[in-house]
Design brief:
By secondary structure, the protein is mainly alpha-helical. The protein is 74% helix and 0% strand. It has helices at 7-13, 20-33, 37-45, 48-55, 62-78, 80-88, 91-98, 105-118, 122-130, 133-140, 147-160, 164-172, 176-182, 188-198, 202-210, 213-219, 227-240, 244-252, 256-262, 269-282, 286-294, 297-307, 311-327, 329-341, 345-350. The mean pLDDT is 94.
Length: 353
């Protein structure tokens, strides 16, 4: 269609002389085309961006706003030049307004998705935050929003929390509790990714634990969840486990058995590494270390050291074994026996075990 010269007439149909339903139809056709990087350049060169910004403004039909916002998001995702052109045309404050309570749910969803796309660019992310997007996004994460709106808002939040200053503002807006609640829904990966980033500060980690996240996170270690969720959850729990009380809570709500299972050979290297790292952290508590050893973790850690081709996984396994060895004489003896059985005794001795 683009090769046949359809883009310029479609863009003309976005203009103010067209009936709103024609504008909607033109935007609907352009929407999937804008996913293509080359075609997105053609769409922008035909002058679509200022017209699309007009179509998301006050007084436009909601169906037109929704589709035009989607096209703007796709164009921004394609390249920085498109994103900069949209910002210059005044897109950001209008998109932020569409996040607000006066918009229908489908418009809010597309606006949040557009925020996600525009926020891949550092300077534009700051403009979006300064325009007041954060309180709206936090509200959209709440239980009153449909799941598709929550998912779009969670995607935008995940991208914005990567920026330190914006993460502070998002936390101050009260994002932690709604994100923790989303761990129980259908957007666990997005929620856990944002919480993982926020938990890098001690105060946020304490707030996440206080919000009741730990039991939810431990449930997400079950095998029915995907490895990308396991990775987020274990990294987040590792941050929380830096405090003794949270480490005790993590162990007490049943984290050890699924973590031991995730050390097995069927897990990806990155999952094995994170499981070993979290077990090592938990094992700094001697009582928890006894429970970890009793769960049969030592042979798996020794096997991981001997069989994994991933150096980071091996390093995490050796750190966990070292922590367990220092926790009790019984664990040291079990490690030595497992190492001898796997013909790895020299490696264990070299690590000071």
């Amino acid at each position: 269609m683009a090769a046949a010269g359809a883009i310029p007439p479609l863009v003309r149909l976005l203009g103010p002389s067209s009936h709103p339903l024609l504008q909607h139809s033109a935007a609907t056709v352009l929407d999937p085309l804008a996913k293509n990087a080359d075609i997105s350049v053609t769409i922008a060169a035909a002058g679509a961006i200022p017209l699309l910004v007009q179509l998301i403004g006050p007084g436009c039909l909601a169906i037109v706003q929704s589709t035009a916002t989607s096209v703007l998001g796709r164009l921004a995702a394609a390249n920085a030049e498109n994103a900069d052109s949209a910002v210059a045309a005044g897109a950001v404050p209008v998109i932020v307004r569409l996040l607000g309570p006066d918009s229908p749910d489908d418009v809010k969803q597309e606006a949040a998705a557009a925020v996600h796309e525009f926020s891949q660019y550092d300077e534009i992310a700051a403009i979006i935050a300064d325009a007041g997007a954060i309180p709206h996004l936090v509200l959209l994460l709440g239980t009153d929003s449909p799941i598709d709106v929550q998912r779009a808002a969670a995607g935008a939040t995940r991208r914005l929390v990567q920026f330190d200053d914006i993460a502070v503002s998002i936390t101050a807006a009260g994002v932690i509790l709604p994100l923790v609640r989303l761990l129980e829904g259908d957007v666990q990966w997005l929620a856990s990714a944002s919480l993982k980033r926020l938990a890098l500060t001690a105060d946020n980690a304490a707030s996440i634990a206080a919000a009741g996240a730990i039991p939810c996170l431990v449930r997400l270690l079950r095998p029915r969840f995907a490895p990308n969720i396991h990775l987020n959850v274990m990294a987040l729990l590792n941050c929380l486990a830096e405090t003794a009380d949270s480490a005790i809570t993590i162990a007490s709500v049943g984290a050890i058995p699924p973590l031991v299972d995730l050390l097995g050979p069927d897990s990806p290297d990155a999952v094995q590494e994170q499981a070993a790292a979290l077990l090592s952290r938990l094992a700094h508590n001697d009582e928890i270390a006894v429970d970890i050893a009793a769960a049969g973790v030592i042979p798996l850690l020794v096997q991981l050291m001997g069989s994994s081709s991933d150096e980071e996984a091996k390093a995490a396994a050796s750190a966990a074994l070292r922590t367990l060895a220092h926790s009790s004489g019984e664990s040291r003896a079990t490690i030595a026996a497992a190492a001898a059985s796997a013909d790895l005794l020299h490696e264990m001795q070299g690590l000071g075990l």
